[in-house]
Amino acid sequence: MFEFRFFEIYRSKQYLDLILDGVLVTGSLTIFSSIMAFLMAIFIAALRYWRIPVLGKFLATYVEFIRNTPLIVQLFFFAFGLPALLSYIWPFWCHALLALTVNFSGYFSAILYSGFLKIPRGQIEAAKSIGLKNLVIFKHVILPQTLHAMYPALCSQFIFVFLTTGVISEIGVVDLTHAGLFIDSRTFRSFEIFIVLTALYVFMALSFKFFLNLIFLKKLKPKY
Amino acid sequence: MQDTFAEIFGRPEGVIFWQLIAATRFTIFLSLIAFSGGGLLAAFVCFARVSPSVVATKLAIGYIWLFQSIPLLMVLFLVGLGIPRFLGIDISPWSAATFSLIIFTSAYLAEVWRGAFEAIPTGQWEGGYALGLKFSKIFFTIICPQAYRLALGPTVGFLVQIIKGTSLAYIIGFQDLMLLGKRWANAPVLGSEPYLIFPIMALLYFCLCFPLSCLARHLERKQSDY
Fold first, then answer.
1. Helix-strand-coil split of chain B, %, nearest 5
2. Do B194 and A69 touch (CB under 8 A)?
3. Which residues of B touch A166 (CB under 8 A)?
4. Which CATH number does the domain housing residue A100 bear?
5. Which among A1, A68, A177 is the nearest to B206, CB-wise?
6. Is residue A132 included in any domain, yes or no?
7. What value does the mean pLDDT of chain B take?
8. B178 touching A, CB under 8 A?
9. Could you give the C-alpha distances from A75 to A105, A155, A184, B100, in angstroms and in order?
10. Per the domain annotation, does A68 fall within a domain?
11. Domain ranges, residue B206
């Protein structure tokens, strides 16, 4: 009675295609949103670091709010709340991209901001005393050191959020979880399909870790 | 209470608002169960992880690695949908959600606590061994009290992750703030528009999480002052 029937999944070309598409959609949405969020986060953290009067406080509140609410509530707000309020229609994946970007940016900027604060005062004073401008100091003194020190934290946060991206299937994005639920509804082999999905998520997380490590060794390792 | 809220905010907003607050208690219950159960399990895993036995250490490393790599969503689906259909038994959303969150919590807390134990200088262990104490004696009377202070901040911080994690449990039909909020947002009732409900829900989660985040930050700052 208890038997594994994995063949129901791997014998059907339709299901395999669905899973492959799911992997691609999940992967590309995560990567694109994290890259956009990373650029946003540098901007947000810099504005907070320079203590821009009103904007700095506002951004601090924004980051706290993002970090203390679940991704899924943010996702539903961006997918259903905001379009109803401002009456615009986007495809599902745009909503998911927006929500993931906002979510990632909150976490990344908090990590970067705490990294900025750890840079010793003396370094900035030294840079100022040789006549460098604020932006130059930021780009060549503060940012490289912060990225180097905070890279592990950024990576583990990236993986942590990646593991929760499955919730975007809830708003209808055809990602890996959505593919799994579809196959589950057709074959009714829930146990097998979710084992397959789990293995794929773990595999993707491991490959992300591998590539992030590679980037660290190639780009961020200090050359001395 | 519901009538008071209805009088203040009007109908149906007051009613919805009160129902959301009432549903929040299940989120809190689930978080507390997950935290205490997961903490207990994490204590065992962590003990195995730092114990001198090679097999126990390997097993604990495997456990932590596995359940940190598996998405919580997949654990929920496996426990809530997969296992009941595979074994032909019935698992209530409560037990499935509790079980999944306990596993999720235990893996992360064990890792947090291991970090705290490894931050204790090895001289403390060696001093204990030099006095002729056994592993368990050193562990419970010398290392634990010191590691406790190091681990307190990150542990409270992880509580925030648990509360946010409970929001996923609605997927297998667990009745909490998330499920009720989503139901109201979908209901064709004037005054329950999604752009009202979801910010209110976010605010409720924020009210739960933000004090804990502040406490965690405060504890960590106090720790670094020593």
1. 85, 0, 15
2. no
3. 71, 73-74
4. 1.10.3720.10
5. A68
6. no
7. 89
8. yes
9. 14, 22, 24, 22
10. yes
11. 2-224
Q: State the pLDDT confidence band at A36, using cuts at 50, 70 and 90.
A: very high
pLDDT for position B226: 60
**What is the reported pLDDT for B225?**
67
**A209 or B4: which carries more pLDDT confidence?**
A209
Nearest to A110 by CA among A160, A60, A75: A60
Q: What are the residue ranges in chain B where pLDDT is below 70?
A: 225-226
pLDDT number for residue A2 = 67
- C-alpha pair distances (Å), B157 with each of B120, B152, B153, B163, B216: 20, 9, 6, 11, 5
CA angle B106, B218, B226 (to 5 degrees): 95
pLDDT digits (tens, 9 = 90+) for A76-126: 999 998 988 888 888 989 999 999 999 999 999 999 999 999 999 898 899
ipTM of the predicted assembly exceeds 0.90 = no
Q: What is the CATH number of the domain that holds B128?
A: 1.10.3720.10
Chain A touched by B156 (CB under 8 Å): no
Q: Which of B73, B205, B210 sits opposite A167 (nearest CB)?
A: B73
A111-114: long-range contacts, CB 8 A cutoff, minimum separation 24: A111/A41, A111/A150, A111/A153, A111/A154, A111/A157, A112/A41, A112/A42, A112/A45, A112/A146, A112/A150, A112/A154, A113/A44, A113/A45, A113/A48, A113/A49, A113/A63, A114/A150
